[in-house]
Amino acid sequence: MTEPLDPDEYERPRPTRVGPVRVRVPAKINLHLQVGPLRQDGYHELTTVYQAIGLYDELTARPGDTLTLTMEGEGTGELPLDGSNLVIRAARALAAYTGRQPHARLHLRKHIPLAAGLAGGSADAAAALVACDVLWDTNLGRDELAHIAASVGSDVPFLVLGGTALGTGRGERVSPVLAPPHSWHWVVAIADGGLSTPEVYRELDRLREAGLPLTDAVPPEALMAALRQRDPEVLAAALANDLQDASLSLWPALVDTLEAGLDCGALAGMVSGSGPTCVFLCADSRHAMAVADELGAMNVARTVLTAAGPVAGARVC
Ligand code: ATP
Questions:
Q1: Ligand 1 centre and the CA of 114: distance in Å?
Q2: Catalytic residue among 57, 124, 133, 155
Q3: Strands 67-73 and 104-110
Q4: What's the pTM?
Q5: CB-based burial label for 202 (10 Å; 0-12, 13-18, 19+)
Q6: Could you give the CA distance from residue 58 to residue 316 in angstroms, rounded to a whole number?
Q7: Most buried of the four, 51, 83, 93, 139, by CB within 10 Å?
Q8: In what order do the strands lie in the sheet with 184-190?
Q9: Which residue CA neighbors atom 17 of ligand 1 most closely?
Q10: CA nearest 153: which of 135, 167, 163?
C-alpha cells in the first residue's frame, strides 16, 4: 500500500519557473458591434463579434521579489506602469484568485497603439494572465483564466481565447464562432492620437438623445453566415459598428480615412471598436497589400499596415 503523503507536502510553496515566459497577444477588431441601451450599472448591453488579428504585443515574465513592470514601444513614457496598468491589475487578480504573492518582473513590448479601438490594454492584461499562470505554475485552464479576465475588463476574456467569437453582456461573455478555417485580410489605418472609449459611449448616448435612431444593424446571424461562406464580398455587406457615428462625431477627419480606403479599392471600411483606428476588408493578402500601399501614400493615417485574422489569443511563444 502506498504511504499517504505528509500533509506538509501539500503545503510546500509551488515552484516558480526560473526562465522567462514570453507571451504574444493579438489586437482585436469588432466585425459587428451592436450597442444596446445603457444598463443600471453604467455599462451598455452589447452584442459583438470579435476577431483577433495579427498585430501583436509581447509580454515577458520573469521571477522577482516584488511585482514590477517596464515597457518599450507604443505609449512608452505616456502609459503609467503602476497599479493602474491593466498588466499589473491582471497579475494581481490572478495572484488573489490562486492565493499567492503577485511577484514577477514583467516587461511589455508594445506595438498595439493606445486608445486606438484595438483593445491593446485588454490584450496586455490577457498576456499577463497567461504569462503569470505559467511563471507561477498555477496551471489554470483557458476557461478559468477567462473567468478571472472578466474581472479585469470586458474585452480581456476574448483576448485570452482569440479567434472569432460572439461577445454578449458588456462583451465579457464570449463563445467561439464556429466557422470553417479561413483567413480574412484587413488593412489597418492607425490614427495619430487616441479616443477615450468612455467618451465615445457618452457621445453615442448624446447622439441618441438628440434623435439618432438605434441603427438597423444586420443581426449577427447574417454575419455568422457570411463567416461560414468565406466570401469577402458577403462579409463586407454584413460588417456593422454602432459606435462609428459617435467616433466620427468626435473625430470628423475619420470620414476622409474611410472614404480614402474605399477609393483605394477596399471591399468595406469601418471604425474599429470605439476608434480612431479604421479597418478595411480586402479580398486576399495581395489585395490588402495593394490597398495598404496606396492608402499609406494618402496621408490620412499615422501608419497603415496589413493584418490577417482570426489568430489565436494570448499564447506562450
Ligand atoms: P478598447 O478597444 O478596449 O476600448 P482601446 O484600444 O481604445 O480599448 P486601450 O489601448 O486598450 O484602448 O487602452 C485604453 C486605456 O487603458 C488607455 O488610455 C490607458 O489609460 C489604459 N491602460 C491601462 N493599461 C494599459 C495598457 N497596458 N496598454 C494600454 N492602455 C492601458
A1: 6
A2: 155
A3: parallel
A4: 0.93
A5: middle
A6: 10
A7: 51
A8: 268-271, 278-282, 184-190, 303-309
A9: 115
A10: 167
Task: Assess whether the C-beta atom of 155 lies below 6 angstroms from ligand 1.
Answer: yes
**Is there an atom of ligand 1 within 6 Å of 79 CB?**
yes
Assess whether 155 carries a catalytic annotation: yes
Distances (CA, A) of 225 to 34, 183, 217: 17, 15, 15
pLDDT in tens, 28-61: 999 999 999 888 888 898 999 999 999 999 999 9
Q: Which residues contact 164 (CB under 8 A, 6 or more apart)?
A: 31, 49, 50, 51, 52, 176, 177, 179, 227, 309, 310
* Cα–Cα distance for residue pair 267/280, rounded to 1 Å: 7
All three cell numbers of 255, joined, read 470620414
Candidates 74, 168, 184; CA nearest to 124 is: 74
Cell of 127: 498576456
Are 58 and 98 in contact by the 8 Å Cβ rule? The answer is no
CB 222 within 8 A of CB 239: no
Is 110 in the active site?
A: no
Residue written as grid cell 489569443:
313
Question: For helices 254-263 and 285-296, what crossing angle results, to 10°?
Answer: 130
* Contact indicator for 265, 280 with CB cutoff of 8 Å: no
| Residue with cell string 491593446 | 120
Judge if the beta carbon of residue 87 lies within 6 A of ligand 1.
Answer: yes
CA of 225 to the centre of ligand 1 (A): 31
Q: Supply the DSSP symbol for 162.
A: B
User: How many beta carbons lie within 10 A of that of residue 39, not counting itself?
Assistant: 11
Q: How far is CA 208 from the centre of its chain?
A: 26
Pull the grid cell for residue 245: 457615428
Residues 64-94: tens digit of each pLDDT: 999 999 999 999 999 999 999 999 999 999 9
